[in-house]
Write a structure and sequence with these properties.
42% of the residues lie in helices and 14% in strands. With 373 residues, it is of the alpha/beta class. It has two domains: 258 residues, 3-Layer(aba) Sandwich (Rossmann fold), CATH 3.40.50; 96 residues, 3-Layer(aba) Sandwich (Rossmann fold), CATH 3.40.50.1100. The structure holds pyridoxal-5'-phosphate.
Length: 373
């Protein structure tokens, strides 16, 4: 399924987000061990896919946390503490499919604060253990991610905890905006190349979405920095959890039936973030969906590259951007999307691998070899 946007326009609150993003970047630079994550060139894969160039930003080493999510959680917690000086006995809570919860636990522990993380009971044991290893209390929720979000908000209200949630709903917008501002660092790290001062050295960017907060943040970055000279942007989601596409089609967040699981656990969400959807709705060029087999193919291709390309360890959700490109360059049903995005042999494409092997056993099973040390 897909949806094409004919007349795009800048997302709302771009300027406010940019100001917060400057603050977030300055904060991230103070974190011990902070360093921009690598950008890889994949010339052999670009050749196989028939595009001019393919670059991939690799999050498998972010603070040893294996995912980009800490950029948002750490800044939101920092901002909350700055607004509440002296409140050191705080408990932060959140819901997660894995990465965001681990990030909240990590950021809370840095400050000596407690964290309680709600996670679907079907989450992989490795992802649950990684959150516990950061000292957080983990609460299993029988239903999926969206029930975990409700449980975290209810617990925050009844226990006096602070919800650091990466998805917005009416009346809960400020903290998700801080998280989105933190995600901008991800895009700023690509300056000055390929994000040059006047124009990007990129024609097409594929952003994968769970609730859409990360994609909305990166899309806002491109509009703010480049305006009409921005690259074309496409949003890719699992076909069984396409809540951002559903929202883009109806113009507001609508719950979808996400009872069929996707292996792309970080993207397995049934309701888009209200503010992310408002931002993405008209500001990107296309929304489309992919089956899990494309994520498996992307993980394997990155793990076992053709000569000339580096090896990249990408988890199931992390590989989704490249998975989208694999589908786009070979599925006949996606031809209208391909045309709309002007994807051809002159295209310079950028994808983001947003996590490493966050479920190492599953990665090893998919790839047929252990996770490299
Ligand atoms: C690895 C990874 N990539 C991408 C995303 C998508 O982020 P968002 O939910 O803001 O759309 C997530 C969300 O948890 C994730 O864990």
């Amino acid at each position: 399924m897909h949806h094409l946007v004919v007349t795009t326009r800048p997302p709302p609150r771009c300027r406010e987000l940019a100001a917060l993003a400057d603050e977030a970047l300055a904060f991230h630079r103070t974190l011990p061990g902070y360093a921009p994550t690598p950008l890889h060139d994949l010339p052999a894969l670009a050749e196989d896919l028939g595009v001019a160039s393919l670059r991939l930003k690799d999050e498998s080493h972010r603070f040893d946390l294996n995912a980009f999510k800490v950029l948002g959680a750490s800044f939101a917690i920092h901002r909350w503490m700055a607004d509440h000086p002296g409140e050191w006995r705080v408990t932060f809570t959140t819901a997660t499919d894995g990465n965001h919860g681990r990030a909240v636990a990590w950021a809370a522990r840095r400050l000596g604060a407690e964290a309680v993380v709600f996670i679907p009971a079907h989450a992989s044991p490795a992802r649950i253990a990684a959150i516990e290893a950061e000292g957080a209390t983990v609460e299993l929720v029988e239903e999926g991610y969206d029930a975990a979000v409700r449980a975290a908000h209810e617990a925050a209200a009844s226990e006096g905890w602070v919800a650091i949630q990466d998805t917005a709903s009416p009346g809960y917008e400020e903290i998700p905006e801080w998280i989105a501002a933190g995600y901008w660092t991800h895009a700023t790290e690509l300056e000055p190349l390929p994000h040059g001062p006047d124009a990007p050295d990129v024609d097409l960017v594929l952003l994968h979405a769970g609730v859409g907060t990360w994609a909305a943040a990166i899309a806002a970055y491109y509009w703010h920095r480049y305006g009409e000279r921005r690259p074309r942007i496409a949003i890719v989601e699992p076909s069984t959890a396409a809540c951002v596409l559903a929202g883009a089609l109806t113009g507001r967040p609508v719950p979808i039936d996400a009872s069929r699981r996707t292996i792309m656990a970080g993207l397995d969400c049934a309701l888009a973030s209200s503010t992310a959807l408002a931002a993405l709705h008209h500001s990107v060029d296309a929304f489309f969906t992919i089956d899990d087999r494309w994520s498996l193919a992307a993980m394997r291709r990155l793990a076992m590259p053709r000569a000339g390309d580096p090896q990249v360890v990408a988890g199931e959700s992390g590989a989704a951007g490249l998975a989208g490109l694999l589908a786009l360059t070979s599925e006949a049903a996606l031809e209208p999307v391909r045309r709309h995005l002007s994807l051809d042999d002159t295209s310079r494409v950028l994808v983001w691998s947003t996590e490493g092997a966050t479920d190492p056993d599953h990665w090893a099973e998919v790839v047929g070899r252990p996770v490299p040390a």
